[in-house]
């Protein structure tokens, strides 16, 4: 028992240990686990067998410009056990090339013939390309510059989705600077605004009736809430006519030019439109006449009758017939011997 124990404990004598252990040694070998070979052991084994070491697999992935794929995702298929490589992504020229470079290669500017056939809202016109490009800062010059797509009709004419009733006047100006007849000035002016033809706009605004309209508008700009009051006249007249089931409606409108109410006693004392009164005194004269709509005050040479003409004309422009007459003045007592005395007019709005 001692010999077996001593021989079994002597690990330095390999021969004795192997002979003395006998069947016990084989039993221990059956129960023991062999460790995995390390990296250095694998290298020595390949050297002894005179085999070449396997080269690491390297994969290069090409991605399109702007691709935000992470490197870890691109190399996920580089495991040695895998036999299939990830196919490299072929870059797309439309993605990698810059916009100027694409325009130079594939986006050539559109070329036009010298004679252009146009279809403007169903009306046909023929003109030279140079006529449409006469003024650079216009819509027509931009359309036919070659940088924009222009649709064509079934006959191959370039199509412009616009009423062509006054397009001939536009072409006549582009050809030789001809201006339209006075009856067509307003309509051609709207078309010139649409096509952004600055020289034509300037020429039209220097002739009647647009010149007079500019002077008239300068006067109306002095009046506060002129357009709003005009809308109120239409709405009130329409409501009253519908309520009474009548063909017309009547309104009371106050139109006054003076800034402060006056009386015959004040008239010789003040020669200007503004009266020199303190703020406390001015509040004593503030009031609202019992009317539907009030216009005024303003400081200009144009008087009350000029404003009445503007009101009637603007209503007629909208197809509304209006008649007016003075029915008196506002007799509201203000203070002491001061009364309002603002003129009041009755407007008759006829609907049919």
From TrEMBL:
Low complexity biased stretches: 1-16, 88-98
One of the record's GO cellular component terms: cytosol
Keywords tagged on the record: Cell membrane, Cytoplasm, Membrane
CDD domains, sorted: BTB_POZ_KCTD7 (cd18366)
Record region (Disordered): 1-42, 64-98
GO biological process, alphabetically ordered: membrane hyperpolarization; protein homooligomerization
Transmembrane segments: none
Main location (coarse class): membrane
Protein's cellular compartments: Cell membrane; Cytoplasm, Cytosol
Biased composition (Polar residues): 31-41
InterPro entries documented for this protein: BTB/POZ_dom (IPR000210), BTB_KCTD7 (IPR057891), KCTD7/14_C (IPR057890), SKP1/BTB/POZ_sf (IPR011333), T1-type_BTB (IPR003131)
Domain BTB: from-to ranges: 114-212
Record-given protein name: BTB/POZ domain-containing protein KCTD7
Annotated organism of origin: Scophthalmus maximus
């Amino acid at each position: 028992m001692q010999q077996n124990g001593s021989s079994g404990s002597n690990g330095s004598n390999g021969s004795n240990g192997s002979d003395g252990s006998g069947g016990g040694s084989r039993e221990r070998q059956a129960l023991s686990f062999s460790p995995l070979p390390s990296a250095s052991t694998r290298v020595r084994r390949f050297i002894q067998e005179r085999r070449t070491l396997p080269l690491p697999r390297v994969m290069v992935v090409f991605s399109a410009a702007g691709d935000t794929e992470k490197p870890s995702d691109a190399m996920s298929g580089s495991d040695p056990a895998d036999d299939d490589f990830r196919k490299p992504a072929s870059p797309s020229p439309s993605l990698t090339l810059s916009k100027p470079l694409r325009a130079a290669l594939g986006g050539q500017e559109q070329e036009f013939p010298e004679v252009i056939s146009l279809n403007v809202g169903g009306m046909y016109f023929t003109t030279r390309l140079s006529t449409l490009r006469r003024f650079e800062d216009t819509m027509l010059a931009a359309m036919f510059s070659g940088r924009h797509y222009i649709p064509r009709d079934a006959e191959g004419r370039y199509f412009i989705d616009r009423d062509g009733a006054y397009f001939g006047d536009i072409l006549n100006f582009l050809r030789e600077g001809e201006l339209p007849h006075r009856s067509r000035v307003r309509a051609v002016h709207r078309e010139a605004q649409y096509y952004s033809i600055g020289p034509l706009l300037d020429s039209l605004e220097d002739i009647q009736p647009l010149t007079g309209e500019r002077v008239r508008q300068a006067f109306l700009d002095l009046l506060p809430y002129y357009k709003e009051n005009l809308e109120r006249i239409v709405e009130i007249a329409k409501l009253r006519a519908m309520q009474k089931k009548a063909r017309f409606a009547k309104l009371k409108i106050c139109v006054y030019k003076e800034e402060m109410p006056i009386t015959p006693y004040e008239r010789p004392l003040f020669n200007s439109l503004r009266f020199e009164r303190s703020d406390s005194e001015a509040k004593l004269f503030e009031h609202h006449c019992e009317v539907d709509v009030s216009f005024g005050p303003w400081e200009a040479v144009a008087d009350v009758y000029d404003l009445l003409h503007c009101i009637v004309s603007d209503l007629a422009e909208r197809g509304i017939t209006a008649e007016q007459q003075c029915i008196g003045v506002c007799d509201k007592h203000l203070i002491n011997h001061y009364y309002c005395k603002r003129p009041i007019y009755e407007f008759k709005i006829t609907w049919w």
